[in-house]
């Protein structure tokens, strides 16, 4: 009895140690290697640090001139998904008139053209911006009616005013995620201004907390080099800088890539150097109008 | 007396010592040298969602180690504006020196709920409702500033002094204020570290990765450009915290309710507040319910739960896809390769998913109980109605910033404050004059 308890304890501990091992479970991720961390810290503390060759990285001094246009279309290959109705459980008189709730818009494929709507395609970095693509001083309307947002993916310039309108008889609130977080009540029939101040790398969700099924996206960008595909899947981005490599991000809310990246690996897509992050590379000649036709297999949406 | 496990001095001989020796022997045999010191953990939900490779995970951990140190040895670059002395007092194991100075305040008072990393995942966290705050996104609910702004030091101090009524967060009013200041500094430090982690994950995703099959490492020690980018990120994060005092919502003086108002004046204001509460402008009844019992809209989540919910939903979708592919069969080589990759991804994701706590919906406050998480003063309620509650479905009704347009006027917000503060004293069954005939229908 004298040693029994401790023995049992020790045995149990041994068993646990043997089963559990001494390492850390991989799902917790790695921890900092402090030797490496110390070296990094030193580089932050010594002004300038060890200057490595940055000369090789400098961008070519040759200035590009002229402007070109990129246009194209996204078409769905496979069985287009059927959108189910929203789970409307509040304010049914307004939100589901006649007992018929509106259909979801998470992946809209046009019946006749197979075009995919609401694909966002935008230039990641612009070396120069054409006059027509500079942020406009006008306001952009973001309306809601029948408890749906009337624009599903809204492009907006950084610093531009988004007029958030409520055209319903019921009250809403608009809850915007991301770097320009915003959440305010929008009374029935009223309009409120909201100005995003920071650029986002991908469209951000916009919701209404009173009617949580309501879902839209908005994309604040510093320049106008972005397009959201129309019902037939078509888009056009004019006045892009010509004579240099342009990298575009392609995004769709239901795409299965990371952060909504639309990833396509068809031969046509490979010609555009389509990456696993949904990015394509294009070079335009001055005054060129380049057209791309993208056939998107259902796989890109997790199908 | 100190209650820390590190400092229990055993003077008993015999049984416990023998047991200890045997235990030590067993540990040696099992191959563990020593208990590892507590380490900061990475945000694996975000890492895996953004497909951060294990190499990048290690590099991000190293950079965070460089910029913020370890739980035992915290570190703050001058850019953060954090005070190293305070961090030192708050960090590390709990003990007190001969002069009686208490060290390791965070581990003594906070870590059981909020966790070493400040991710709200301490050992007790799973059993609490609401869950302890995850500091890493830098979002705080109860504060004096505009919705999107950071809390001020005073706001965090107030939470430590008052605790959060209706939650497991206790009051630390009995601690000397210097200790609370150290804790506030440490909480801000954990937030900044978490915010920086998010920035680094985004940076790796946006700017690094493979170029023509060659991986671009995250190595600021070798790449001055990366160093510069990181200092900019850090400065932007620190700016958000530093400008908090300027973002405190200032109530309009002319519309402030007078002190010691006669009962009739308050009654008029309460009536106006009730009108707003049930009207379509303020819309309070939609979530707080027609009887203000907090039983209106209860289908939404706060941002912390929503993140986890999305992660689990993505896991389920991937599992469904794998099932579908397996059931169809007849895969070519490429399809089989894809399936193997998907299975690996799913295993990795599910291991992380299994550690997450069950998702809980946001509960609108039951306003008849008289328990107010962010404080019960009229000014506290005013701030909740004005700015909303960040990270939750609760929207603001005042202007979103000093130059923005509000939904309600300050006077109207004060009417709502009067009504809300009157609710615990009004019987729910009492006829409500301003309740529209179809209130129940609207709420449904």
Structure report:
The complex is a heterodimer of chains A (303) and B (444). Chain A has helices spanning 4-20, 34-45, 92-95, 267-271, and strands at residues 67-77, 120-123, 140-145, 148-149, 153-157, 162-166, 172-176, 182-186, 191-194, 204-207, 215-221, 226-228, 234-241, 245-251, 279-283, 289-297. Chain A folds into 2 domains: 66-130 and 225-303, Sandwich (Immunoglobulin-like), CATH 2.60.40.10; 135-222, Sandwich (Immunoglobulin-like). The longest helix of chain A has 17 residues, at 4-20. Chain A is built from 4 helices and 16 strands. In chain A, a hairpin with a 2-residue loop joins strand 3 (140-145) and strand 4. In chain A, the strands form 4 sheets. Chain A has a 5-stranded mixed β-sheet, with no helix packed on it. Chain A has a 4-stranded antiparallel β-sheet with strand order 12-2-14-15, with no helix packed on it. Chain A has a 4-stranded mixed β-sheet with strand order 4-3-6-9, with no helix packed on it. Chain B has 444 residues and is mostly helical. The termini of chain B are far apart. The interface between A and B is large, with 80 and 86 residues.
- Shape descriptor of chain B reads globular
Number of strands of chain A: 16
Provide the CATH architecture of the largest domain in chain A: Sandwich
Number of helices of chain B: 16
CATH topology of the largest domain in chain A: Immunoglobulin-like
């Amino acid at each position: 009895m004298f040693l029994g308890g401790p023995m049992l304890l020790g045995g149990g501990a041994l068993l646990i140690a043997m089963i559990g091992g001494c390492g850390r479970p991989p799902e917790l991720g790695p921890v900092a290697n402090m030797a490496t961390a110390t070296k990094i810290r030193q580089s932050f503390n010594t002004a300038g640090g060890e200057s490595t060759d940055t000369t090789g990285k400098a961008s070519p001094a040759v200035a590009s001139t002229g402007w070109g246009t990129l246009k194209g279309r996204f078409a769905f290959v496979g069985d287009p998904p059927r959108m189910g109705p929203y789970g409307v459980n509040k304010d049914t008189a307004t939100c589901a008139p006649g007992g018929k709730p509106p259909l979801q818009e998470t992946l809209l494929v046009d019946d006749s053209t197979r075009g995919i709507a609401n694909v966002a395609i935008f230039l990641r970095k612009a070396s120069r911006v054409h006059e027509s693509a500079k942020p406009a001083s006008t306001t952009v309307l973001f309306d809601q009616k029948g408890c749906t947002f009337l624009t599903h993916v809204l492009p907006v310039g950084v610093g531009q005013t988004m007029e958030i309108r409520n055209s319903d008889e019921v009250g809403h609130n608009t809850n915007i995620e991301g770097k320009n977080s915003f959440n305010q009540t929008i009374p029935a029939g009223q309009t409120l201004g909201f100005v995003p101040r920071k650029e986002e790398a991908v469209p951000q969700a916009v919701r209404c907390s009173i009617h949580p099924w309501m879902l839209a996206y908005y994309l604040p960008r510093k320049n106008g080099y972005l397009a959201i595909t129309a019902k037939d899947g078509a888009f056009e981005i004019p006045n892009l800088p010509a004579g240099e490599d342009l990298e575009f991000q392609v995004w769709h809310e239901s795409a299965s890539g990371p952060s909504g990246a639309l990833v396509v690996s068809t031969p046509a897509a490979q010609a555009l150097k389509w990456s696993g992050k949904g990015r394509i590379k294009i070079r335009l000649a001055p005054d060129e109008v380049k057209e791309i036709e993208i056939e998107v297999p259902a796989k890109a949406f997790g199908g | 007396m100190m209650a820390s496990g590190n400092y229990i001095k055993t003077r008993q001989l015999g049984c416990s010592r023998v047991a200890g020796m045997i235990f030590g022997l067993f540990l040696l045999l099992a191959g563990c040298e020593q208990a590892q010191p507590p380490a900061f953990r990475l945000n694996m939900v975000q890492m895996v969602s953004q497909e951060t490779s294990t190499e990048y995970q290690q590099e991000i951990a190293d950079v965070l180690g460089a910029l913020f140190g370890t739980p035992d040895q915290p570190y703050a670059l001058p850019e953060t504006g954090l005070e190293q002395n305070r961090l030192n007092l708050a960090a590390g194991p709990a003990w007190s020196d001969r002069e009686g100075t208490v060290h390791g305040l965070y581990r003594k008072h906070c870590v059981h709920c909020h966790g070493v990393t400040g991710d709200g995942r301490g050992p007790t966290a799973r059993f609490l409702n609401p869950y302890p705050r995850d500091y890493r996104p830098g979002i705080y609910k109860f504060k004096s500033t505009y919705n999107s702004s950071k809390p001020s030091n005073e706001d965090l101090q107030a939470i430590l002094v008052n605790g959060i009524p209706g939650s497991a967060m206790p009051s630390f009013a009995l601690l000397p204020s210097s200790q609370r200041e150290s804790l506030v500094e440490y909480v801000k430090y954990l937030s900044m570290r978490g915010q920086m982690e998010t920035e680094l994950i985004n940076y790796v995703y946006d700017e690094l990765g493979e170029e023509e099959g060659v991986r671009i490492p995250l190595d600021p020690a070798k790449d001055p450009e990366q160093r510069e980018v990181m200092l900019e990120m850090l400065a932007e994060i620190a700016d958000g915290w530093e400008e908090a005092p300027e973002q405190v919502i200032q109530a309009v003086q002319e519309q402030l309710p007078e002190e010691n108002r006669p009962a009739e004046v308050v009654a008029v204001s309460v009536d106006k507040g009730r009108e707003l509460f049930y009207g379509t402008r303020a819309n309070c009844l939609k979530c707080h319910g027609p009887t203000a019992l907090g039983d209106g809209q209860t289908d939404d989540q706060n941002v912390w739960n929503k993140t986890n919910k999305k992660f689990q939903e993505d896991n389920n979708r991937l599992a469904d896809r794998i099932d579908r592919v397996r059931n169809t069969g007849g895969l070519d080589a490429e399809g089989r390769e894809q399936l193997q990759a998907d299975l690996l991804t799913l295993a990795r994701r599910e291991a992380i998913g299994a550690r997450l706590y069950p998702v809980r919906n946001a509960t609108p406050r039951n306003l008849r109980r008289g328990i107010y998480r962010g404080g019960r003063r009229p000014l506290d309620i005013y701030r909740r109605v004005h700015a909303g509650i960040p990270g939750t479905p609760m929207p603001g009704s005042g202007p979103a910033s000093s130059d923005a347009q509000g939904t309600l006027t300050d006077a109207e917000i004060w009417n709502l404050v009067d009504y809300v503060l009157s609710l615990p004293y009004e019987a729910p069954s009492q006829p409500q004059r301003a309740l529209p005939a179809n209130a129940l229908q609207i709420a449904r």
